[in-house]
Design a protein that fits this description.
It contains three helices and 19 strands. It is globular. It is an alpha/beta fold and about 180 residues long. A hairpin with a 4-residue loop joins β18 (about 170-175) and β19 (about 180). It has helices at about 1-10, 20-40, 45-55, and strands spanning about 10-15, 65, 70, 75-80, 85, 90, 95-100, 105, 110, 115, 125-130, 130-135, 140, 145, 150, 155, 160-165, 170-175, 180.
């Protein structure tokens, strides 16, 4: 999957491109696992096993994800240790989402690595850019992190913030668009 991530990263992918068909195929295969994840009561161990299948890698036993959890692709998510993700989180991860150790993610958080092409003649196409969440970050409920953002170590994202720019380490941001408040 890393080779696909390299192929899509920062590039315009139009709907008639061969990569679009590959992405659609992988999404389609993975959606049955996402649906299975979210339609049954599961133990933490069972959740992590199924998340491992969705993400294509083993999930550390210290990771806790409360269901439901949504991802449109799944294969480009990397989770560190001691990560906590509250219910109803949505990861649009085709562009790559890296979450380092000890991160807390509130309920209804959106991590979005995909955007549409601005040219109206090609708007159905996409462009991706990765999200990186560094160690010990806390993202409050209903925050949205847009493509290409890095959130620095120990930062706090206030509830309902929309993050449109990188967040420096050891700061608190809030609002729409998010601004440093502490």
């Amino acid at each position: 999957m890393d080779s696909l991530l390299k192929q899509v990263s920062g590039k315009e992918i139009r709907v008639n491109h061969a990569l679009f068909r590959t992405i659609d195929r992988i999404q389609d295969e993975n959606q049955k696992h996402v649906m299975e994840l979210n339609t049954h009561h599961r133990s933490k161990e069972s959740t992590n096993r199924l998340l491992g299948k969705i993400m294509g890698k083993e999930i550390d036993e210290s990771v806790t994800v409360l269901l439901p959890f949504y991802t449109d692709f799944g294969k480009h998510i990397k989770l560190g240790k001691n990560v906590f993700i509250n219910q109803n989180a949505t990861f649009v991860d085709l562009g790559g989402i890296t979450i380092e150790d000890d991160v807390l993610i509130g309920s209804r958080v959106n991590l979005l690595t995909v955007n549409h092409i601005k040219d109206p003649n090609h708007r159905r196409g996409i462009i991706t850019s990765p999200i990186k969440i560094e160690r010990n970050v806390w993202i409050g409920a209903a925050a949205t992190i847009l493509p290409g953002i890095t959130i620095g170590e120990n930062a706090i994202i206030a509830a309902n913030a929309t993050v449109t720019k990188d967040v420096p380490a050891n700061t608190t941001v809030g609002g729409t668009p998010a601004k440093i408040i502490k």
